[in-house]
Amino acid sequence: MTFGELRRLYFIIRIFLTYGLDELIPRTRLALPLRLWRKGVFWIPNRHQDKAIGLRLRLALEQLGPVWIKLGQMLSTRRDLFPPEIADQLASLQDRVPPFDGARAKAQIEKSLGGPVETYFDDFDINPLASASIAQVHTAILKENQKHVVIKVIRPDILPVIKADMRLIYRLASWLPRILPDGRRLRPIEVVKDYEKTLIDELNLLREGANAIQLRRNFEGNNLLYVPEIYSDYGSETMLVMERIYGIPISETQTLVERGINMQLLAERGVQVFFTQVFRDSFFHADMHPGNIFVSHDHPDDPQYIAIDCGIVGSLNKNDKRYLAENFIAFFNRDYRRVAELHVDSGWVPPDTNVEDFEFSIRTVCEPIFEKPLAEISFGHVLLNLFNTARRFNMEVQPQLVLLQKTLLYIEGIGRQLYPQLDLWKTAKPFLEEWIKDQVGLPALWRTVKTKAPMWAERLPELPELVFDTLHHHKLLKHSVDKLADQLNQQHNRHIQVRYLWGMGAICLLSSTAVMLVHPELKWMSGGLLAGALISWIVGWRKTT
């Protein structure tokens, strides 16, 4: 380790101990050196004994800065790894990071643009509008069209900090399997790799811009969701220019009510937006926490969402979408046998899984949930219980499903905050049933024909040649197979002959020995049998080469 890394490591340890996070070290024999090291070397006392462990963990991560805040946010989606009192606190992590100097932001913008800010923008505000762990935004007016825009700028010199902290996080992750009883099942290295990829992707604002353009196109002309326009000509990996939006933050429920927003319709449309992104578009905003969602001021009786910060998106392939939709429907119909079969058919669990045992486990975990009215059942927790049960049957972690679960929990929490009486199942079930019907019925067949028709028309003139080539290849293949069969048959016959000759040689040798012992006077016979043995072995050996 370098001196800088050691200093950073000491700072992290000091923060952890100040918040008493050494309580998380398990009292096992393998963890004993760590506990002794803590008491013998570090005498830093816990200054927050009056706070719960989950709250202390959240406060420590916030103080450690961007990398650790993002790590806590990512870990909050893995509720299979932590008890609720910790997972809930991690889920509430916010990017409470002080802004960096506006002059540095301006210099970075000018470096990306290749010229002064005043050449491209009017009224550039050197004071940031908002600041987060990875970037901050400034307001301006775009000269070419006089549109109000925001300029998102990556924090300068953040990459070396991220890399240094990631090296430390990898070291911590490598220790966990040795000190935690269940450390290997948690697969900490894989969790950290997923986190690192997400973090590095967020540093590339060109990727975020492309995601926003795709999402905007998917909902163009739709009154459910509005995505601000991206001005790609001014973008780079470290800077993004986008339309400035003026909406009501989704977390300001009282303001929404005072503006006359139809709260029930708004909550239901949040569910529709989610399922439309997942099942219609296979492209969903995977970071829809309250800080990234606004509501338009216009048309309170016909409310529209506004989404920003598209740095993290998810997608599902066709099979995942179908299996997921059928899982939801089977689950809420309490058809646990179908749920178990779908998991096996999808490849989410190994093909040799005992379906009866799997079905029984799902029923044991999920039946108590249905003691509640459907309106009180959490979609996100249904998915969580389902995946946790499947993991006991060696279900591999599906990254796309983890993102989906996280997004669903966000959407569900927002929906119930807006309209506590929201029945997510009543809202989602017709959508899912209609989607499945559309995927397997005549409309799906007609779409396939319509999609494939141009390719078929293009290949039609080649059909005779393709048929000829197929027949020719079939003939060549048959000839090759016949030749291989003959070779195998000849080899088999040779092996039989070799075994016979070696056996005859052994018999001749034994007979020669017996004659020598019983009738020493018959040396000629003994010599002949010995010669026969040698000849048999030589001939057999030559047949093997």
Describe the model.
The chain is of the alpha+beta class and 545 residues long. It has 3 domains: 3-97 and 160-199, no CATH class; 247-436, no CATH class; 478-544. Helix content is 62%, strand content 8%. The protein contains 22 helices and 11 strands. It has helices at 3-18, 32-41, 53-64, 66-75, 84-91, 102-113, 117-120, 158-179, 183-186, 188-202, 205-218, 253-258, 263-281, 318-332, 336-346, 355-366, 379-391, 399-418, 424-440, 442-459, 463-518, 523-544, and strands at 121-122, 130-131, 135-142, 147-154, 225-226, 239-243, 247-249, 284-285, 293-296, 305-307, 313-314. Strands 1, 2, 3, 4 and 6 form a 5-stranded antiparallel sheet that branches. A 4-stranded mixed sheet has the order 5-10-9-7. A hairpin with a 3-residue loop joins β2 and β3 (135-142). α17 (379-391) runs antiparallel to α18 and α21 (463-518) packs antiparallel against α22 (523-544).
